[in-house]
Amino acid sequence: MLPIMLKNYSSFYQIALLVCCAALLFSGCQTSETENENPLSEEEQESAKVRPQVTFAIADDKPIYQYVESQGVVEANQSVQLKPKISGYVDSSYIRQGKRIRKGETLLTFDQKEYAIAVQEAQNKYKEARQKYRIEMGMRSGRDSARGTNGHEDPGEQLVRITTGLAQAEVNLKQARLNLSYATLKAPFSGVLATNKRLSSGTYVNAGTEVGQLVDDRTVRIRFDVLESELSNINKGMNVRLTAPNGQELQGQVQAVAPVVNTETKTGTVVVQANNSSQVLRPGMTVEGLIQTLKQDGKVRVPRSAILSRDGGRTLLFKLKPENNEVQWVYLEPTAQNSEWAIIDHKQIAPGDTIAVDRHFSLSHQQIVDPQLRVTANE
Q: Which CATH number fits domain 53-62+298-373: 2.40.50.100, 2.130.10.10, 2.60.40.10, 2.40.420.20?
């Protein structure tokens, strides 16, 4: 009985194995037929590959400029300490921190009573001395007429002015009037006030005491220290690009170049003047300066970031073929460059070409990419 059961089990196993093989064979044939019916095109196979995103910029034919870079400290074009020339009691004070004023505007007034009285006294003494002088000169005129010297200059007139007190009376009157005028302190130029004092009416102020500072910040000066090797390239009138601490840019011009060089630092001072009507710059600020020393023209200008170094120092850039987004390398040598731009003179590069400027370090020749155009570029 047992041999019969083993025989039947063996037959069943063989049949099951044949069925499985047939099923696998049938499935493989169907897959092969499906693949043959729907083959991938070359374009689809190409699109299935990962295309690197690369940033491009448009080449142009603008010039580039060479700059001397330095840091400088802002100074007011005009600045004066406000110090009254006389002592006295404050009547009114208009000096306020940050207040903007115009030339000739009153800043401070003293009680003028004492100085007005001094003027009146000086006038009285002047009149008295003048009368003495006239009497003395009248007597001299009579004596001169008797001697027949009328019409000639009297060499003793100045002596009479002194002996009668007229000369001193004139000086005293002028001084009294001057002191009275000093009782009103006015702005010598337009600007903005700076002070840490608050002068109230009745406060006594001594002559020469600083009561504030007036700063003309509409125009400012910046002093830059420049290396002696670069100093000879800088001349009066050159344009200067200024960058404030907040990043805002302004334009200035070289006003003067120091005739001597500091023997210790080996630098010379360049003074730049800039319009500051927007009050972006304040005295004491540190600003960055780019002094334009040279303008260079060429066939094509590209961002300097486009230039790569390969094969032991050879330089190249990648140019885009817009019709198929393929990049081609072009080996070349820039004819001039600065920190931002490079001038190219090569037959394969022209203004209007699309040049890779970022994410292009690992590209290869004739590689297909996903181009991203940079809309704006730094000038």
A: 2.40.420.20
Q: How far apart are CA 74 and CA 240, in angstroms?
A: 14
Supply the pLDDT for residue 176: 95
Neighbour-count burial of 365, counting CB atoms closer than 10 A to its CB (0-12 exposed, 13-18 middle, 19+ buried): exposed
Alpha carbons within 13 A on the beta-carbon side of 183:
21
Residue pair 371/56 in contact by the 8 Å Cβ criterion: yes
32-69 confidence digits (pLDDT tens) = 444 444 454 555 455 446 799 999 999 999 999 888 99
**CB crowding 137-162: b at 16 or more within 10 Å, else e:** beeeeeeeeeeeeeeeeeeeeeebbe
Structure tokens that stand for 100 in this block: 């903007």
The answer, as to whether pTM is greater than 0.70, is: no
Q: Please report which helix (H) or strand (E) contains residue 303, including its range.
A: strand 300-303
Q: What is the pLDDT of residue 16?
A: 53
Residues, the chain: 379
The residue-averaged pLDDT of 221-225 equals 95
What residue type is 15 in one-letter code? I
Per the CB < 8 A criterion, the answer to whether 321 and 353 are in contact is no
